[in-house]
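Please go through the sequence and fold tokens given here and tell me how the chain folds. Record follows.
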Amino acid sequence: MNLKIFLSILAPLFITAMGAGIFLAYSSEEGLVDDNYFEKASGYFHSKGIEQQLGLEIIPPDALVRGSNDIGVTVTSHGKPFEHAGLTLFTGNVSNRDYDRSVKMTERSPGNYHAGAAIPYRGKWLVRIELSTKNLSTNRKWFFNVN
């Protein structure tokens, strides 16, 4: 008898707590949930298959410093330079969106792409490279601690 009373009190409390948690998570998601997630993810395995066929490798940039940075990445396919791709560089501070920037990268030599980025203050910074060709669209991201 006491167990029934306990469960009849516990069940509504549990359901209320779950509902409140879901509501709070949804209302303050702060980028944790991507809009149109299914549509964006539907081509993921196809893109990864093309990457494997190409033997695609994107070598990350060197460390970032405060101030002006020339960010360079090397892109190879089966060890050879991957030329004439469209690359976009995104830089952003993890805790502040004020300095989020996207810029097209230029190919200085076969497979070597560069772009400038300003890092005005210390903290954790996200660097994301988006690569696109007529058959492939993919990206890589890295986090850097800037002192």
Notes: The longest helix spans residues 2-27. The radius of gyration is 22 Å. The helical segments are 2-27, 37-41, 44-54. The chain has a mean pLDDT of 88.
